[in-house]
Amino acid sequence: MTLIIAGLALWYAVHMVPSLGSGLKQSLVERWGLVAYRVVFAALVLTAMLLMVLGWRSAQPVTIYLPEPAWRPAGMALAVLGLVTLSATRRASRIGRLVRYPQLAGMLIWACGHLLANGDSRSLLLFGGFAVWAVLEMILISRREGPWIKPGVPGWGTELLYLGLALCGIGVVVYIHPWISGMPLV
User: Fold this and answer.
1) Domain interval for residue 124
2) What is the pTM of this model?
3) φ, ψ (nearest 5 deg) of residue 89
4) Region for residue 67 given its phi and psi (left: phi exceeds 0; alpha: psi -120 to 50; beta: otherwise)
């Protein structure tokens, strides 16, 4: 569990720099340059993810609650919906007109889907940690950015293209899930 906590702490710290320490981010960008800042940011995020995966795989889960078997399909549907929502980040989309922060909302939905299907200690720590982070980020970014200006609506061709790409990405996630988590989806 220590590695999961370390990974989450690093994830929070790296992601909170732009939200809480915009002056710190700006000074780092000025000192290192934007490309170097982004490379360091990405390396730290990947390190956090690696720590969480290794922590997940090495932690001995303790049952906290027993999810109802009927919750599993709903949990899987929420995880898929979360990934589709997450894919609407940084582009005009119909999802982006409904949800101010598709990436964060997607992470929250994805985390809740996992919490619906898994009631062990490592799931509560990891997915609960992601859910709390997503909500905190939405609040902090909203305060920083002010009123929401909704994006335009793309044509249906563009929307369907991105939906297709999102579904391909979900297929990859489903395929690699057993190697990342050690848990098959079926």
Assistant:
1) 62-186
2) 0.86
3) -70, 140
4) beta
Helix axes 2-20, 121-145, angle to 10 degrees: 0
DSSP letters spanning 66-123? ---TTHHHHHHHHHHHHHHHHTTTTS--HHHHH-S-HHHHHHHHHHHHHHHH--BHHH
- Look up residue 8 and give its two tokens: 């989450």
In which residue are the tokens 């919906």 written?
81
For 107-166, the DSSP string reads HHHHHHHHHHH--BHHHHHHHHHHHHHHHHHHHHHHHHH-S--PPP---HHHHHHHHHHH
Longest distance between any two alpha carbons in the chain, whole Å? 53
Integer Cα distance of 95 and 85 in angstroms: 7
Residues 115 and 181 in one domain: yes
Give the chain's domain count.
2
> 1 and 88 share a domain?
no
* Residue type, position 174, single letter: V
pLDDT, tens digit (0-9, with 9 covering 90-100), for 90-105? 777 788 788 899 999 9
- The structure tokens 């999802």 sit at 95
